[in-house]
Amino acid sequence: MTDESSIEFAKPDYINGRFGNPKSFTDWKGLPSPLDVFKWKALEHNLSLIPTEEVLEKNLPVISPEYDLKSELSATWLGHATVFVHLEGINFITDPVFATRASPSRFFGPRRYRKPPSKFNELPEINIGVISHNHYDHLDAEAVKQISLLNSKMTWFVPLGLKTFMDSIVGGAKVIEKNWGETETIEFNGKQFTILCTPAQHWSQRGVFDRFKTLWSGWALLGSQHKFFYTGDTGFCDEEYKKLGKKYGPFQLAAIPIGCYCPRWFMQSQHINPEEAVAIHKHVKAEYTMGIHFGTYEMGSNEPYLEPRELFLKAGENLPEGEIFTLGHGVTWKYQQK
After folding, report:
1. Are 25 and 237 in contact (CB under 8 A)?
2. What CATH number does the domain containing 258 carry?
3. For residue 27, is it within any domain?
4. Does position 198 have pLDDT exceeding 80, yes or no?
5. Does the chain have fewer CB atoms within 10 Å around its N or its C terminus?
6. How far apart are CA 261 and CA 302, in angstroms?
7. Residue 234 domain-assigned?
8. DSSP letter string over 181-211?
């Protein structure tokens, strides 16, 4: 029987100022080459046509959230990888992205097809924010700035290398950097919470010359009775998720990406598919898992826009009803103990 205290997470490579996925991530085959990108765009059949507004309204409506700040654990999906979590009295947000386009310009790049359910000033007070990596669909500088202005006492947690950029946009808010496996204990309203930085199989780039200059990660929020886990963007580094489940599980709720997986030969190293999302749900011993990272932006991948949800629920069809689920934009989920 494994002693939980002896379990150690992998650490990223760090060579000549750039991070890398370690050799133990056997599913990491590196990023596609320029030739691969050409082959994908020129030869692969793209099925990702955006549905009509009528179809989107029917299948992915956007509603004004009714945040639950009374339950011990609740979560509201705000689109893509943005989840507002209320856990034992503390308010937590993942990768807040509200931009019309997930790019450095409002004129080009992946367009948002489902508007944000809340304006910044409609969000509840936020105590903790986490950023998984610096891609534009996960780090929206204007959103971070506005949330920080409205919550000057909040703390942001970011992976290694990202603090300098964050400090330039958060005003007086606090920013803490962490490596994989590192934790920070905070006290809020007389209660202690632990923030854990978890491994992820991905990459980083925000400008032309900064690829791999900052780290990527997932995050967990650990309360006294409830635990929440967010993978961030990731390929299938399954051994790390097994370690996470053994050392810190069970998690009452996980938020796991289910979109941006096609074509598989191109996306496999950097994005899990819906079946792998269900496997991670099991590895981390999640009681419930919310499928995210779909149905909000044009994803830059070839799967049909609404397919991730269908495949995710199909992959989990042998699990108890409601154990894995997706939400509409602005919908709130409330934890019910099994």
Report:
1. yes
2. 3.60.15.10
3. no
4. yes
5. N
6. 8
7. yes
8. T-EEEEEETTEEEEEEEE-------SSSS-T
**Residue 239 phi/psi, 5° resolution?**
-65, -35
Assess contact for 156 and 174: CB atoms under 8 A.
Answer: yes
**Considering just the CA atoms, what is the radius of gyration of the chain in Å?**
19
Helices (H), 47-195: 53-59, 141-150, 163-167
Enclosing domain of residue 115: 65-334
Reduced to 3 states (helix: H, G, I; strand: E, B; else coil), residue 7 is coil
Q: How many CA atoms lie within 13 A of 43 on its CB side?
A: 9
Q: How far apart are CA 156 and CA 177, in angstroms?
A: 9
Q: Whats the size of the chain, residue-wise?
A: 338
CA distance 161 to 306: 35
Distance CA 42, CA 76 (A): 39
* pLDDT surpasses 60 at 99: yes
In a domain, 256, yes or no: yes
- pTM for this entry: 0.97
Residue 28 lies in a domain: no
Structure tokens at 28: 């990491």
User: CA separation (Å) from 70 to 14, 66, 164, 185, 284?
Assistant: 43, 12, 36, 23, 26
The structural domain count of the chain equals 1
Q: At what angle do helices 274-283 and 238-248 cross, to 10 degrees?
A: 30
Of 216, 219, 227, nearest to 269 by C-alpha is: 216
The pLDDT value given to residue 2: 59
